[in-house]
Prior knowledge:
single chain; alpha+beta; Nucleoside Triphosphate Pyrophosphohydrolase; four-stranded mixed beta sheet; three-stranded antiparallel beta sheet; 2 helices; 34% strand
Amino acid sequence: MAGHPENIRYTADVVAVTDDGRVLLIRRGWDPYEGHWALPGGHVDRGETFLRAAVRELEEETGVRVTEDELRLVGVWDQPDRDPRGRYVTVTYLATVTYLATVPADTQATAGDDARDARWWPLTDLPQPLAFDHADILNAALRTTR
Length: 146
């Protein structure tokens, strides 16, 4: 019904790509999309900015550390049906890396928090399908790097 506020949850996602054509993905540990690969990300905590949430979620889910200055805004995804749990709005950031905080980009990412696995995938051989609308988000992020 028009005029009634909607309960909206906010998330932040990170597209971390390497100069040699890899992207960091996590395997989801629970529904929705349990077992599917997705971009690292998660809920924005009370009092937290989207940017700070992106830095925190990337580290919690993959062990990869970046600074806020290393992230570039890709965009906002707010389609009402993008998440089966309800209305979620995500802000996505891009980290194009050769090195992440002095750790070589080919260092094995370590799954943590709600991620079952974390891995650098070649952009030419991604697992299908990605969870949620993450394929669309990834494609948009890659367009910004060209």
